[in-house]
């Protein structure tokens, strides 16, 4: 563990007693930037933008773009998270909390600028979500660079190793496969076929996803005018089934913003989380008066009750500038830059005892 990380950890531990959703900026609450994970450079980029007077939407785009360029954790931007075919695709979303405008792209190929493509959808179409190669074609037609090869030597190596490990883990369930790398067949409905298959037909094991195989940047910005925007960008879960879209581009799941209330950003097992729209729940809870910390924990708990093994986290921030996080199945960190801070600060959130049911 690098010493700088340790240093940061202790620094964070010292700060912990002050957090838990009770930080109210007393001298000018805005601007404010909050992001999942210690994506410090991304927060700095968004802060610089919003501090220079850019809008919340533009600052979110600056921040998430920085993460795409840096390939944060290898799970944002190009060159990471290969799917079963070894291909990297991009999911991204931007939401303007003033009029609840949303632009998003999903399973986008050949274009590395996810958040900029999402902004083009929001600002230059009446649609909300474009997917697949048509999303790429749209982004390129509107001026983004491409087609670009989104694979990197690292993503290809990762994929090659996965193939050598018999394509494990993967996201299939209730399937049979002759050599474990597919083609896969449904287990229950293909009884007669299964019998006809050669001996040695094996069952695919359930995905045991590593802690860094599905990280997302989800960012919220409150600009100087008090306007709120959120954005997300990810290249999705490693070894996903091609065509899979996670929670990243789904408004209300990975992120949500309402100018009257606040915002939320989420990360984790998107396949599960998107069934609960946790960020929508967080914002609606805060609208009805719940504090960010309680709203965040409540949303996480609701998922944990049905999926005790799920891994996920989110942050909540209200328009007073109070922020908090909650998590399940892993220790979560989120980053904040506010008026009262001289640098980006990283907050550590441990899984709440209530929801730690494993
Ligand atoms: C894309 O890049 C990867 C990694 O550098 C490389 O292996 C692959 O051949 C490239 N694909 C194309 C079509 O150029």
TrEMBL record:
GO terms for molecular function: beta-aspartyl-peptidase activity; N4-(beta-N-acetylglucosaminyl)-L-asparaginase activity. Keywords: Autocatalytic cleavage, Hydrolase, Protease, Signal. Residues 1-21 form the signal peptide. InterPro entries: Ntn_hydrolases_N (IPR029055), Peptidase_T2 (IPR000246). It catalyses: Cleavage of a beta-linked Asp residue from the N-terminus of a polypeptide. It is an enzyme of class 3 (hydrolase). Its EC number is 3.4.19.5. Substrate binds at residues 244-247, 267-270. GO terms for cellular component: cytoplasm. The active site is at 216 (nucleophile). The record marks 215-216 as: Cleavage. One of its GO terms (biological process) is proteolysis. It holds the Pfam family Asparaginase_2. Belongs to the Ntn-hydrolase family. Heterotetramer of two alpha and two beta chains arranged as a dimer of alpha/beta heterodimers. This is beta-aspartyl-peptidase. It comes from Rhodamnia argentea. The lineage of its organism: Eukaryota, Viridiplantae, Streptophyta, Embryophyta, Tracheophyta. The gene is LOC115742617.
């Amino acid at each position: 563990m690098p010493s700088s990380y340790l240093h940061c950890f202790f620094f964070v531990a010292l700060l912990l007693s002050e957090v838990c959703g009770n930080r109210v900026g007393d001298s000018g609450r805005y601007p404010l930037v909050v992001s999942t994970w210690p994506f410090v450079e991304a927060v700095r980029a968004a802060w610089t933008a919003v501090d220079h007077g850019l809008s919340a939407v533009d600052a979110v785009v600056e921040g998430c773009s920085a993460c795409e360029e840096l390939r944060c954790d290898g799970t944002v931007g190009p060159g990471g998270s290969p799917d079963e075919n070894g291909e990297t695709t991009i999911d991204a979303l931007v939401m303007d909390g003033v009029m609840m405008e949303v632009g998003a792209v999903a399973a986008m190929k050949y274009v590395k600028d996810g958040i900029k493509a999402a902004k083009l959808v929001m600002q230059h179409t009446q649609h909300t979500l474009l997917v697949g190669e048509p999303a790429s074609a749209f982004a390129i037609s509107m001026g983004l660079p491409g087609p670009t090869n989104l694979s990197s030597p690292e993503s290809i190596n990762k994929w090659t190793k996965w193939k050598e490990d018999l394509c494990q883990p993967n996201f299939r369930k209730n399937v049979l496969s002759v050599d474990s790398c597919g083609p896969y067949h449904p287990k229950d409905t293909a009884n007669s076929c299964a019998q006809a298959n050669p001996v040695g037909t094996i069952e695919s094991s359930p995905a045991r996803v590593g802690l860094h195989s599905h990280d997302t940047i989800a960012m919220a910005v409150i600009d100087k005018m008090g306007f709120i925007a959120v954005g997300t960008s990810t290249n999705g879960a490693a070894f996903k089934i091609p065509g899979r879209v996670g929670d990243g581009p789904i408004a209300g799941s990975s992120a949500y913003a309402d100018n009257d209330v606040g915002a939320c950003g989420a990360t984790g097992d998107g396949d599960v989380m998107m069934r609960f729209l946790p960020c929508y729940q967080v914002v609606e809870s805060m609208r009805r008066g719940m504090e960010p910390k309680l709203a965040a924990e409540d949303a996480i708990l609701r998922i944990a009750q049905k999926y005790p093994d799920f891994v996920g986290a989110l942050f909540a921030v209200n328009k007073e500038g109070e922020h908090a996080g909650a998590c399940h199945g892993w220790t979560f960190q989120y980053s904040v830059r506010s008026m009262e801070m001289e640098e980006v600060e990283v907050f550590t959130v441990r899984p709440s005892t209530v929801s730690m049911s494993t």
